[in-house]
């Protein structure tokens, strides 16, 4: 089940809200847990059992930590069991096919064996399970004694299938006791509608253009068309994923949870390092806390710093998908961040802001080519088209016609990806407060109307991050 579906918005969510708030406080966690399991089973009925087994094993291991001194030998043994189980499940379901195909291609062998279907959201709930177990092992948080509460932490449907990745310590108190007032509930609705509009009105529509370009023969793509296409994907993936994060944060608010922001206008960044501080913040924080810092972080020698950076970015790339293009994508950004940290250091700060911004966008856009094409040959063929190598024309009539038809959508997307809409909204709220309230209510009703109309009329509703 996806958030941007008629069934979720007009059936599942209203029924869940009614049942949740009509139940007593002691039953609300159970209602939300059952709803979350139903939500997951709607698309992945076969893998609900896998997730439940994971919940029980990690819950039990964390309770064993609580009976012993922190970080002793016995606890290390329990931690290893948890790591082997969680990473083993992730490796089997997500990377088994990649490993087999890589081995087969290296030896030119024919290896038979089916690739297991990828359970939706396994990367997200595995990382949450690991962070919980590791934090209990370190003594940063106490083990949760209530299995229902821990199960809700892992299965909570607002962030189950595509994040943001939520640390247990951030919502520990909210899991046990939370309150929602009308103001927060209405804010949650507005945030959800904002994310829904991002997804169905912006990401899906600009994604149609990229889909058309991607499926064109290389001989028919001009240099301008190649750049227009990959910029469309750059906007699509932002509104697709940030829209889902907005919906998750909004849904959390509606049930009394406060999730941290996952995106902070990444395309206004003035360096690649800054981009990754603004993009998928919860994932970057996870790798920093549980991989980069334990390796020594940046407080090590030059060569160990290089090692740490490339390990983290190699793993970040592979987290996104079981294909070597994702590893290449991660190493690409790792290399750029290494150059900024070690080579440029503070010299970038003397560059004009416009130059830093253009530099950042240029390399981010190129990075999305590595992300989108799984075949290395396709990656370098498309890069050649972008840089005018072996391309038939700089711009052809088709490119001009397509750009004219999409130019308004491009402009809307570019503006929506910047902080300006929020700044304008704050200005009107502070200057015309009475008019602002009415206008905002009308605005969100319009968003719901057009988003619903799109979902009724269109069958194009992909979600990029579901495959991770």
UniProtKB/TrEMBL annotation:
One of its GO terms (cellular component) is plasma membrane. One of its GO terms (biological process) is alginic acid biosynthetic process. Keywords: Acyltransferase, Cell membrane, Membrane, Transferase, Transmembrane, Transmembrane helix. GO terms for molecular function: acyltransferase activity. InterPro entries: Ac/AlaTfrase_AlgI/DltB, AlgI, MB_O-acyltransferase, MBOAT_fam. It holds the Pfam family MBOAT. It is found in: Cell membrane. The chain crosses the membrane at residues 6-22, 48-65, 77-97, 117-135, 147-166, 221-239, 309-339, 359-383, 403-421, 441-466. Its main location: membrane. It is a multi-pass membrane protein. Belongs to the membrane-bound acyltransferase family. This is Alginate O-acetyltransferase complex protein AlgI.
